[in-house]
Amino acid sequence: MLVLGIETSCDETAVAIVKDGKAVLANVVYSQIDIHKEYGGVVPEVASRNHARKITLVLEEAFRKAKKSLSDIDLVAVTHHPGLIGSLLVGINGAKALSMAYNIPYVEVNHIHGHIYANYLEDDFRFPLLALVVSGGHTELVLMRQHLDFYLLGQTLDDAVGETYDKVGRVLGLDYPAGPALDKLALSGEINYNLPLIYLDKDKYHFSFSGLKTAVLNLVNTKKMQNEAISFTDLAASFQNSVIRVLVDKTVAAAKEFKVKQVVVAGGVAANRGLRSAMKNEVSKLNDVVLTFPSLYYCTDNAAMIAVAGYFQYNTK
Predict the structure, then answer these.
(1) In whole angstroms, what is the distance from residue 293 CA to residue 53 CA?
(2) pLDDT in tens, 183-222
């Protein structure tokens, strides 16, 4: 079964063709990072206009790489939510037009489900499964007892972890998106600054990062007012430690409580090397629990993950 996946939820225009929910024949992504970098973040109107300009070209490139045509496609899967409304509409309208013109079945996919199913490209799922979704807009712990059975255990009560990285990166003078650069900086620093570990004891599996972001800002401002030197590498390491310890500790606690057989990490922040290292170290201590990360290429927004989720959505009754 060949699935055409289309993803336009934010600032990547992506099209993929995936066979039987596993074999990626093509996965083309047009990124707008360089366009939005000068604004320090994604501008919704600019993003949607660029999707409209590029989606046809990206579609053509995906079919060229897969050596397939629309007559070969058995299902069209498109990101429906969450995301930027204008950007989503470009992908949805394009997918509906193809579906109607070529009489191809059509499914609408939740973007977060797509990120989770990016891990299926790496390894089959073992249920019950726990997913940690960490991206620029989302931080969630999701329990799955079978395919497409999603139970939200917890989520961020304020800033998403990727958003926090970008805001702290701005304080450190890093360009948008700051996540990869901050991760690199952190790996060369020492944990020398006392920053809070926010566990939210009353909200067992929820997250909060706004207080940590404020603590970093206050620390930098205090040091400047007192004319004291500050090591940005050490501050990056201290910040990343506070983020990762909470993410890993809550994930491991949930994995134990619900006796899962697999932990998957999904979303753009799944590419973070500090998080990967810490998660591997702690999950390895659990009995008979498999840990899966997507390949770096499938951590950020892409259409292959939407095609895989769409495949299961269409075939799971």
Answers:
(1) 32
(2) 999 999 999 999 999 999 878 999 999 999 999 999 999 9
| Distance, CA of 236 to CA of 234 (rounded, Å) | 5
Please determine, looking at this structure, whether the domain spanning 124-293 carries the CATH number 3.30.420.40.
yes
Residue 133 tokens, joined:
């979704």
Q: Which two tokens stand for residue 166?
A: 């970008």
Of how many residues is the chain composed? 317
pLDDT attached to residue 317: 67
- What's the pLDDT at 310? 98
| Cα–Cα distance, 279 to 272 (Å, whole number) | 11
Please give the class, per CATH, of domain 2-117+299-315. alpha beta
* Calculated CA dihedral for residues 46, 115, 62, 315, nearest 10 degrees: -130
CB 198 within 8 A of CB 211: yes
Token couple for 310: 């769409």
Q: How far apart are CA 16 and CA 297, in angstroms?
A: 13
Q: Kindly state the DSSP code that residue 247 receives in the 8-state scheme.
A: H
* Buried-exposed string 73-103: b where 16+ CB fall within 10 A, e elsewhere: bebbbbbbeebbebbbebbbebbeebbeeee
Question: What are the strands of the beta sheet with 139-144, ordered from one edge?
Answer: 150-155, 139-144, 129-134, 262-266, 290-292
Name the residue ranges covered by the structural domains of the chain: 2-117+299-315, 124-293
Query: What's the average model confidence in pLDDT over 25-38?
Result: 92
243's enclosing H/E stretch is helix 232-257
